[in-house]
């Protein structure tokens, strides 16, 4: 039976508990029903075409409607829809995917552990890191330092590693032994000084925390190369080099969460490559399969992997869907397509510089305090007063107003407080970037008019 849109909305309201949604706020109007998608566009039940400036949820890197991925899934579903790899079994799709990932990853990474999501990847990382130090005879190295406003998922470990205060307030307590330091968010927290100086201050905050906790007690530092869900927070150039020095000084592992930055978002296969990092562990997900099927994992550097393998015996950890053959087959085909079509190179050499130029024009808008971008990730800081960068009154929910106007006028941009974030599919064209910037500008005009 085919449901009418009205019927679907009613059933949605009655039965479906959406992620990250205030149910009461859905109101009579209910949810927007998305029916299909093609390229960089999604379509809703009213037949409206919307440019997906968020690539789904930072994940549809290859764009929508790729038959090759449908074929990869169909073929694998017929051949072997599921089998686990727990007890000395394996299968071709997962092995080939692991090999491909290790080819693409920085040179010190030759092993992958698979999960069903980015959150599970971060749960895995937490256990691996503590197990590693225990095997090294340093069980006191337990503390993990994350960042305020960082996002590492919604499982208990994921939300504990993340630094989202609103998440910590619900369903806690968090996993013990995790602490958070300031984020390198110059526009929001660093305007007392230059971006470069602020980047160094933030790295210093990590060192200060290490000394507070005791330099022998810190296991790892976890961070996204560029914070995504926190608001596309691009660190000042001084940040990562200074952080690298601090971590090396105290023998602390680096976990680079590549769930958003991985697979071309910054114009390199990994955000770590963009910033010249050689992490010990890299959680991955999202762009790995371009969101077509759920799959995540952890790329594990030789240092940790060899210890776990040589000294660890069985690691009592794994998920039913670790290395799911159908998800692996789709992910592999997705990586092949990204490679064959030169998608990542095109982001670096063509699209990222073009977006940077067009996006920067929005900085002149009366309610934009800063327009920043790196690769195909961008943010607009909404402000009430451009001369002082004062924010709109919180009660106005300027970001949400702008987000809704965008959606209604044919563009998906997400709001994080009063930051509008952007992360379109990597197959977007220059013409579509023009369309996106025009839509964003008109949405800003309307937001300004409505909030005036
Ligand atoms: N890590 C980062 C950086 C993310 O952005 C996300 C999701 O947005 C996650 C982890 C969690 O991934 P998932 O939603 O697949 O569990």
TrEMBL record:
Pfam families membership: Aminotran_3
Highest rank taxon of the organism: Bacteria
Keyword Cell cycle (UniProt): no
Species lineage: Bacteria, Pseudomonadati, Pseudomonadota, Gammaproteobacteria, Oceanospirillales
Protein name as it appears in the record: Aspartate aminotransferase family protein
Keyword Transferase found: yes
GO terms of molecular function: pyridoxal phosphate binding; transaminase activity
UniProtKB keywords: Aminotransferase, Pyridoxal phosphate, Transferase
Segments forming a coiled coil: none
Family membership: Belongs to the class-III pyridoxal-phosphate-dependent aminotransferase family.
Cofactor: pyridoxal 5'-phosphate
